[in-house]
Each structure stands twice: as structure tokens, then as C-alpha cells.
Design a protein that fits this description.
mainly alpha, binds zinc ion
């Protein structure tokens, strides 16, 4: 019996089948913004120290974040797959280049 291990890095997207994947930090934007906003709100009372502290908290949180793999074509996010070293960060140029493939895929998956 061959078992497909989910511990293998993704080579292609299990959802749409394309191998156009990129990785980014699994960053929770609302949380990050809330921390900075809190620092800014407390800033007048703490003479700016809270802003620096909150920015530091944000930076530490960011560094501890795991990378997730995302598909350029169907935009699905894969949190459990280990990082594939060949996947680079999001590239707007590539993303625009994949636009046609994405539209073809959408048309196919709509049917
Ligand atoms: Zn996909």
C-alpha cells in the first residue's frame, strides 16, 4: 500500500493541478495592524515608546511565522505542506503572466 505523505513539499497544486506556486508568511494582517494601532494610540501617553514596542512585537511575530504555499492559479493556501525551497515569494510579474492560465482554469472549473 502506498500512502501519499502530506509531509512532502508541494510540487503542484492539489486543487487545480498547476505547478505555479509561491510562498509567503502566514501573516494575520488584522492582528498586525491592531498591534501597531494600539501602539500608536498609546503613543502620546508613553511618549512614543509604545509605538516602538509594538513595532518590535510585530517584527518578532513576523519572524516566527511559518511560510505557507499559495497557488498562483486558484489562489488556494496550503498551510500544512512543508516549504518547497523552489517556491519563491509572490511575483507580480509572474502573477500577471499567469492571468491567461488562470482565466482558462476558471472557465474549466466553472463548467
Ligand atoms: Zn491551484
Amino acid at each position: 500500500m502506498t500512502e501519499i505523505s502530506d509531509k512532502q513539499p508541494l510540487e503542484r497544486c492539489p486543487h487545480c493541478g498547476y505547478s505555479y506556486l509561491y510562498s509567503r508568511k502566514d501573516f494575520n494582517k488584522p492582528v498586525g495592524c491592531a498591534i501597531v494601532l494600539l501602539g500608536a494610540l498609546l503613543s502620546p501617553v508613553t511618549m512614543g515608546i509604545s509605538l516602538a514596542v509594538c513595532a518590535l512585537i510585530d517584527a518578532v511575530l513576523y519572524m516566527r511565522l511559518k511560510n505557507i504555499t499559495i497557488c498562483y492559479i486558484c489562489a488556494k493556501e496550503f498551510r500544512d505542506a512543508p516549504q518547497n525551497p523552489r517556491h519563491k515569494e509572490f511575483d507580480l510579474g509572474l502573477d500577471e503572466g499567469y492571468e491567461r492560465i488562470r482565466e482558462e482554469w476558471r472557465e474549466k472549473s466553472d463548467k
